[in-house]
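Continuing the series of single-chain predictions for the mutant panel. This is the parent chain; the variants come on the following pages.
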Amino acid sequence: MSCVPYLTLVLVVIMSLPIGPAYGGASVQPTGLLDIEEQLEVLDPSMPEAYFTLGEELAAEARTEQDYKLVQRLYLITILQSHDQPNGATLAASACIALADTARADADRRVLWAIARMLDPRYSIRDWSRSTDVVVTDDVAFETATALGHIRSGWGSRAVADLRRDDVQRLIRRYSALITGTIQQNILPELERQAKEWPCPECRNDRVVTKRHTGRIERRLCYTCGGNPGPEMTPDELIGQLRFESFLLNSRQRSWGAQVAADLGEPMRDPEIGDLALRFGVDPKRVLYRNGQWVEPLPTESHEDADDNGESDSTTPEDAP
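Parent structure:
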């Protein structure tokens, strides 16, 4: 049997694979869109709806943190460039709702929904047909909090089974920001890694090991865990996990002292559109994508000239996304 038809089929399959220019350091198009670089470079801040449309297309196929960061940037630019334009409030409100769907932190989602309601009164009407909050049963919340406790105490093997459950994984992914302090980082892979490393492979969490030395039997602190099994954690990491567990177990501090200690007496503030860029870590001035970086428009030249030159007055262009 000739192998020519087989080789021809292989070549056809290989040539059909999506290969395109990279963005943000990625070597493969995460969205499967071959012309992603071209679409980013033709975006113009005078037409914010184009940012929103591209953001929706990329959000439908986003898989990695890099993908979601790019989608969030596109939505954010849409909001900042359209909210103060004539008839732009509706577009900005829609971008707020879309951005809220990509946010991990509940506080960010609440702020974005509040801004959407201010921009477009239609979002002020409560939709009783569905709930926007994740329903967490007491059993799942308790088992998730217990799994984190097992990992901290060095009994990670007891948490492995719980971390494999779909309901526990969804809960951790949804509220990872309570542990990490950032909306982009998913803490689940790190918890799974820590769970597999403990108990201590040397002393099995007995904290001491028995050694025979010059005919005598001595008991010494374990050389691997130092008598303190469990992953090393910074104070911020420990506080983050306790904050997460407190939320799951519905702990409520009602004293004024506890509230001041929690938020340092920070006053309640109305949601502001101008605060969104800082909240999501995006420079609001860098709205043009040139040569793999987000840059500021040139102050004395048109966007067409900036496209031709591929330069920016910014001395520190921001890497994509």
